[in-house]
Design goal:
about 170 residues, mainly alpha, 6 helices, about 65% helix
Length: about 170
């Protein structure tokens, strides 16, 4: 069979990078990858700046702030396992932070009725006041880091990220 014959049924190998239909997908895929990398860069930069501010201003850490924030939202306290789950870290990661906060009088431990192995932790009144002050300052830092972003921009970004999250959550069901 002559390969130059226009009636030939043989097809040359396809190059997906140059196939128009697949190229659209490739462009979308590359745009999504660039978006992910930008989110990662910005997230790391913001987290780094917040860590530094927390260290300099309060001689403290973001994980400590996160523990206090989770307990601030849970006025009745949380079991250690619930606290770890809400922070998406292991119990071991939280234990040392909780221990230091207990020693500083910011958190109290509460025995769980009918479960000798379980403990709940709860902010003390002093811990609640301390966190409330720090949270206001933290909010100001975050606002400064997002200077130039309008309310509409923030709402749009949140909506986009929630769509991504809901698709991820749906794929894990």
């Amino acid at each position: 069979m002559n390969m130059n014959d226009s009636n030939s049924h043989s097809h040359p190998a396809r190059d997906p990078l140059h196939d128009d239909h697949i190229g659209e997908t490739s462009d979308l895929s590359k745009a999504r990858l660039r978006a992910w990398l930008q989110i990662l860069r910005v997230s790391r930069r913001i987290e780094g700046e917040l860590r530094e501010k927390m260290r300099v201003e309060y001689d403290s850490t973001l994980p400590r702030f996160d523990v206090m924030a989770a307990l601030y939202r849970a006025k009745d306290g949380l079991r250690m396992s619930e606290l770890s789950k809400s922070l998406m870290v292991s119990n071991g990661n939280v234990t040392g932070i909780v221990e230091r906060l207990v020693n500083e009088g910011m958190i109290t431990r509460i025995a769980v009725e009918n479960d000798r192995r379980a403990l709940m932790v709860k902010l003390t009144p002093e811990g609640r006041d301390d966190f409330a002050r720090r949270a206001l300052v933290h909010e100001g830092w975050v606002s400064d880091l997002f200077d130039g972003m309008t309310t509409e921009d923030a709402s749009d970004l949140i909506a986009i990220l929630r769509r991504v999250q809901s698709r991820k959550d749906a794929s894990h069901d």
